[in-house]
Every structure is written in structure tokens, then in C-alpha cells.
């Protein structure tokens, strides 16, 4: 039976956790904070950051090179990170580390985003309790 023009199927209203989470993550500086955090712990190269983010988030956050490399380049331009090529080894990798300004920005963003992260955590707990209790 064909649907009427104004009827919407359930499928049209579906969204994934990725849709919700990544939209908020991108709009709340959480992604740059995560990059700075990972680089603050040890030098990292782009593909390693991609795999660490995927692993840490339980595959909820997937990042592609077209997202991470422009961000790393922008962070270099802002003197938040510096990249150093590892040329003796192949394939060549550019390892990133935080600058003094990068550590300051990392701590500033971390403090600024803490209330939002706490609200997000609280909201997830409330939703889980509401739905599954």
C-alpha cells in the first residue's frame, strides 16, 4: 500500500549515536581537545590519532584523514603543535607534539569544556535510566 504524501516512515526519523554525538562533538571543541590531549601525552602521527580516537570511543567516533590532517595543519599554523618528519623510515610519518602555546590552549579548552562534558554525561545517564529502567 503506497504511503500518502505527508506520511513519513519510521526510517526517515532514525538517526545513529554517531549522528548525534559527532554533531555535538564537532560543535563543542571536543574533537580539537581530544587531539591536543592525545598529543600532550606523547608525539603522534595522523593515522595513529585516527586509530586511537576510534579505539577510545568504542567506534562511535570515526575520523577520516580529510578531517584530521587539515585540523593538524591549522593547529600548526596557530603554533599549537609542531610537526617533525620521520624521514629515515618509510613510509614517512609526520609526528606532532605540543608547543608551549599548545599546552596552554589544551588546558584552556579542557577547563572550558568540562561543564559541557558533565552535562552530556548527566544527560546520557538520565536517558539510559529513563529508557532501560
Automatic annotation (TrEMBL):
Protein's name according to its UniProt entry: Transcription regulator PadR N-terminal domain-containing protein
Q: Which Pfam families match?
A: PadR
Transcription regulator PadR N-terminal domain ranges (all copies): 35-105
Q: What Gene3D superfamilies does this protein's entry cite?
A: Winged helix-like DNA-binding domain superfamily/Winged helix DNA-binding domain (1.10.10.10)
Q: Matching SUPFAM superfamilies, A to Z?
A: Winged helix' DNA-binding domain (SSF46785)
Amino acid at each position: 500500500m503506497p504511503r500518502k504524501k505527508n506520511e513519513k516512515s519510521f526510517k526517515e526519523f532514525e538517526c545513529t549515536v554517531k549522528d548525534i554525538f559527532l554533531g555535538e562533538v564537532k560543535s563543542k571543541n571536543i574533537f580539537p581537545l581530544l587531539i591536543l590531549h592525545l598529543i600532550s601525552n606523547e608525539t603522534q602521527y595522523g593515522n595513529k590519532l585516527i586509530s586511537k580516537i576510534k579505539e577510545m570511543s568504542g567506534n562511535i567516533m570515526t575520523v577520516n584523514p580529510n578531517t584530521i590532517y587539515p585540523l593538524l595543519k591549522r593547529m600548526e599554523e596557530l603554533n599549537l603543535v609542531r610537526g617533525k618528519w620521520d624521514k629515515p623510515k618509510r613510509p614517512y610519518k609526520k609526528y606532532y607534539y605540543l608547543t608551549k602555546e599548545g599546552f596552554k590552549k589544551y588546558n584552556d579548552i579542557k577547563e572550558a569544556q568540562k561543564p559541557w562534558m558533565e552535562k552530556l554525561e548527566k544527560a546520557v545517564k538520565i536517558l539510559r535510566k529513563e529508557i532501560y529502567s
